[in-house]
Structures are given as structure tokens and as C-alpha cells.
Batch of 3 targets.
Target 1
Amino acid sequence: MASRRTTPMTDLALVAVFAGVIAAFTLTPAIPVGPLGVPITLQTLAVAMTAMILGPWRGFAATALYVVVGLAGLPVLAGGASGIGALARPSAGYLLAFPLSALLIGFLTRWFIARQGRARWAWLFVAGLAGSFVFIHPMGILGMSINGGIPLGKAFLADMVYWPGDLIKNAAAAGVAVAVHRAFPSLMVESAVQRAPEQETVTV
């Protein structure tokens, strides 16, 4: 079924709402792990879910808005952190990777939804893993190495602690996204301002 394009105002509202959702997920207690104490949080779950539901550009915008607001001083980052000083923490690489991860997850999700009629959960799960292992983990490892002052090899081993949790969180995000798209198929369709002329509709 072809879905109508959303309006720019709707897109802005969704971006703001989902940036708030990502911030809300940081209210859950963080679990410090590894030699540098980079915590396990639900941020990656929220980022993946946002991208899978909103698509690439709105997912990117919502995630970037969350990061910018946190760096601007609002205590919405993991553990209630805020301010530009967060960029000097060992977790900075993970934080900066969120918008890029959302962009990739959103593109893959939109592509899969348009072309895969079955096993949608599995394809969205793959999209989430792609965002994690193409951007979040590599940039997180680099950030731990630079800001934590440890070799890349040690940072890589420290990062492996987060892999099982990422599998669970991406599986959960895919499940939520499949349910949301089943109920509201037009959510994946972005406004004409954000889409190329040949991509005016998405068939779901």
C-alpha cells in the first residue's frame, strides 16, 4: 500500500519526540564495566529503535538533536552527564557514533521494508547490527583508546563486553519497530523535503 508523504511539521515533531525518547532511555541506571568504566546503557536500544521507526534522515536528526542537547548542557547523556566535557570521556566515541549509526540503520530499514515481505524482524535486526558494528563499536573503541589512554587492542577487548547486550537490544528494537510499522505504516515515509523525487512513496 503506498503511503502519503508526511509534512515537514510532522517530521519536526517526530524528531523532537524521539530525541526525547532517547533521553528518557538514559534514565535507567547505567552499569559501569570494563577497565575504563564505560557504562552499559539503553541508549543504543533507543537509537536503533528510533532509526528503524523514523527512517534515515529523521532518525539521524533525532539522534543528532539528542547529542547536541546533551553537549549543550542538559543532563540527558548516560549517567546524567552533560556538557562539552563529555567529549573527553572514554565513552565519547560511542556518543558521536549514534547519529551515523542511526543514518545507516534507517537506510537499511527503509530498503528492507520496501523489498522484503517476510522475515521483517530478521532484516531489521540485521540493520541494527550493521549500525552497531560499522559505526558504534569502531568509534567507541577509538574513543576509549584516545581518551582512556589505552592501546587499541585493549580497547577492542574491552568493547567486546558490550556485544551480547547489543544483540539483545537490536533484537528488541527490531521487534518494537515491526509492531509500530504494522500499526502505522506511514511512519517510514518522510516529507518531500528530505526525499529524492524518485522516492516519493514507500510500499509496505
Target 2
Amino acid sequence: MKERSASYIRKLVVTGALGALAVFLGITKLGFIPWFTGASITILHIPAILGAVLEGPIVGTGIGAIFGLFSMIQASIAPNGPIDLAFRNPLVSVLPRLLFPLATWGIYALLARWKKIPAVIVASVAGSVIHTVLVLGMLVLTKGSGILTGGDPSVTVWAVLGAIFVANGIPESIAAAVLTTVVVAAQLGLASSNKKSKLNS
């Protein structure tokens, strides 16, 4: 009973801490890396990927919810540009952030039976790609994609979405894989050293 209670407390703490990290990265703009395309690369989704891999789907979804709600509130209170207006819609800002951690966890849980670190890399990349696809897809479904084309009929929304995916989605996936793998590898190394110290004591 005590172990279960401690597990719940740990999951709650991790959710709050990584959720707060996502908000902090957003407020301070540290989570946005300037990029040659003019649209910054974001790492705000990485805490949700970390939470899903380290603590499971509930924690990952909780962090994603915090990330999504923050994104919606920020778009409503202090939008940085025209595209932020689309993120006032919870279908664009919140729903994708609830779903992609679940997909990340599912991929990791499936692959971790064989090798953990490769599973982390694949799940992180896939989770980041799924996040990008879901957000862009919801922009199309909610008619927010018109903002991307600037109302120019000569510009197809699919060309714009494809360019965003290649120029931003791929680097974001690489960043997610690197950062998540480093943190998980450190956590696995710490757990391994703790086991060794207990065996030697």
C-alpha cells in the first residue's frame, strides 16, 4: 500500500515538475530556438515525451494537458503572430498535446521489451513527428490553415504544411531524440549504480 502511494506521489510530482518546465520554457522563450525558416523550432513538447517514457501514459498526458492549456492561454492573451490565433481553438492547442504522449508511450512500451535506449530514440522521434502531424492536421480540419497561406490563393496549404514539416518537424524530432535519450540514459545509469551500491552494502 505504501509503495503504491509513493508511486502515485512520484507520478504527481513528475507531472507537475515537467509540466512547469514546459510552461517555463514557453514563458521565457527558452523553448523556442531561432531557425533559418523564420519559424522557431520548439522543444516544449519534449517534457511530455519524457514523462510518457519515464512514468507512463497518465503522466505524459498530464504534462501534455498542461502544455496544451498553456499554449491556448498564451495564444489568447499574448499572441506572437497571426498563426497563434489558430491556437485559441483547443482542438489545435490542447487535443494534439493529449494524444501524442499516449502514442509515444505505446511505441516505447512495445519496443522496450528488446532494447531500452533504441526504444527511447524511436519513441521520441515518432512522438515528435506525431505531435507535428496532429497539430498541422488540426489546423487543416479547423480551417486555421488559411492563416498559413496568408489568404494567397496561389499558395497551396499542403505545400506550406510540407515545408513546415520538413524544415521544423525533422529538427524537432532530432532534438527530442537527443534530449530524451540523454535524460533516460542518465536515469538508467543512476538506477543501475544504486542497485550496485545496495548489493555491495
Target 3
Amino acid sequence: MADKLKIDIVSDVVCPWCTIGYKRLEKAITELGVQDQIEIEWQPFELNPNMPVEGQNVKEHITEKYGSTPEQQKESQQHMTEVGEELGFKFDYFDDMRMVNTFNAHILLDYAKDFGKQTELKMRLTTAFFSERKDVSDKDILKQALLDVGLNADEALARLDIEEIRYDIRNKQGYWKNMGVNSVPTIVFNRKSAVTGAQPVDTFKQVLTELIKE
């Protein structure tokens, strides 16, 4: 059996384009029928590492960070909702939606990797945030997500208080930043080449076909 194509996806749980990018990549993999030749690993990236515990209203946050007007935001959210629908994912934007801190979610995703459940947990958390109006910084929500994908919630949540593990996740974030990743999703193939952004399905198919041939 040839070596699998390793794909690192640098992303955040609360990043809509990361979800769209992954769903398009997944579609490309499925349409090519190469699921057994691919290994995916999710890498941590916080869009808002300094987000306080109480979070921030999404509208305020986007205005502050990107200078978008409410009209531009509405338009952008409408567009993402439509793209999500095409890919079978529900974006449910609402007025009181809050941007939250995702550091703990990244610790749990790292834990899930050891059990081959990383993608499952990632999509569970993303769905909780975008489709179910849930706060993915809340420990009860995180616990439920772990249980939903069949992981040991108590063991996983205990990791949130271990300083060494927190340090390790910060280091991983630092690694990707040092590699020049400053926007997500960044999708890295065999740690040699990368594409950024939610590329079209056909682009992913082309890249995958070339790399698998090699």
C-alpha cells in the first residue's frame, strides 16, 4: 500500500470558510473515490486568541475587526448560508450570535486525534456553533459534543486544566504561524504545498489527482 496523502487543515471551529473549505474538500475526495488514500489532521488556529470569556456580539466583532457595515455583513452571511446549503451544511446566523473563545475546543480536538475522531468532533463543534446556536466555549456544550462522537468526556475535559497541554497547543499554533499561515482555512498537502481559502471542488480534485499520482 502506497503512503497516504497527508492533509493538514489549519482552521478554527468558528470560521465559516473553514467549514465550507472542508466540505468542498470532502466532496472532492468522495467524488474521486480516494477516501482510503487520504489522512486528514486538523491543526489549531484561533481567529480571536484574545476573545474574553463572555465572547462578543458577532456584528460588533466583525465591524471592529474588518470594518464591515451591517449591510455587507448581511450580504456575506446570506452568501455563506447559500453556499452551505449547496454542501449540506446549515449556517443559522442570528442577531444575538456571539463570537467565542475557541482555545479549549482546540485542546479537545487534539485529544480526539488519538482516537481517530478528530474530523467527527470538529464537525460536531462547528455544527453546534453555526447550526444550533450553541456556545462552543461552554464546558457543558463541549462535554456533550465529546459524548456525541463517543469520546470519554471526563478524560478529555480534564486536559483543559493541564498547563503542559495548554502550552503544547500554543506551540502548535505558533508553528503554523511561523510557517506563514495567517488566514484560514490553509490546507497543507504532505507538508510541502498548500492552498488557502475555500477553493472550488474542481480545484481540490485537480490538486488531489496530481498529488496522488506522484
